[in-house]
Amino acid sequence: MEVLTVLGLLTASWGVYSVWIWWRERKMLPKLVDKSVLITGCDTGFGNLLARRLDQLGLRVFAGCLTEAGVAELRQSCSERLQPIQLDVSSSDSVQQAFLAVKNSVGGKGLWGLVNNAGIFGPIGSVEWPSIADYQAVLNVNLLGLIDVTRTFLPLLKKSRGRVVNVSSVGGRFAAPFSTPYAVSKYGVEAYSDSLRRGMRCFGISVHIIEPEKFSTSIVLEENIRKSLHRTWESLSSETKEEYGRDYVDEIEKGYNDGSYKDPAVVAMAMEHALCAAYPRSRYEVDWGARWVAIPLTWLPTDLGDYVIRLLLPWMTPVPAACK
Description:
This is HSD17B6 protein. One of its GO terms (biological process) is steroid metabolic process. One of its GO terms (molecular function) is oxidoreductase activity. Keywords: Oxidoreductase. By secondary structure, the protein is α/β, with parallel strands linked by helices. It has a single domain, classed as Rossmann fold (3-Layer(aba) Sandwich). It is about 55% helix and about 10% strand. It has twelve helices and seven strands. The protein has a seven-stranded parallel beta sheet, with helices on both faces. α2 links the parallel β1 and β2. α2 (about 45-55) packs across α10.
């Protein structure tokens, strides 16, 4: 009876706490029209959606696009408040040019928000398939580019005691063996974000991590996934191909193209909340798969977690022909 009473009290307490958090997080910041935000990776996907949403809310948006086509598209479809700029986060020269453009525009007011959204998925396949050049290419954008942009714009963020929003991934806490370069880069984003949050608190800068699961964006289009997987496969030696077998490739492709990708607008809403809420979260685990499946699996003892993954998600750990 005492156990039931304790469980009842804990349940009631958790319910009250959840309602209080829900109510608290609904409060938005006043005078959003006075705030400026820089977003990287706005050509498509999460960044493009967020730029449009913030523009509609009246914020001044600097939308970093890799391509001239991305710049032209946003300039044509958004208000004059939104300023698209060409920005390649893997190029320090490009980052410095973007910094000067933003600094000249905001003056002494500083920058309220920086959203590090630019990213690439990289090669797909077994953990031993990608080359060092493959790892370097992914890290240059997803991690080193993010760090370069953040370090460059910190002086403007300090002026406004603003916010940094880093787009990580559920892959930053749950590493799949067929997207290793991507997972390595996102684990780095998690580590850098944690360090940045703890180190910048005294300056009034808050840091927020977005951890999406599987959402429909250009980097995970079925055609792009298929091309990446087959390009990596064709680069392998005949010996390695024989070792793994064609069925291994088919299993990975089938798992990626299972039709479970979700609306990316949900991620843009989480990013918007991190920038505009009076009481934002430090970490946003976007969608139930990340919150209730993938990340809780990482809390298990390592061997047990690996066994559960093999049992429940066999497509994530297909067996090479040589191991059958």
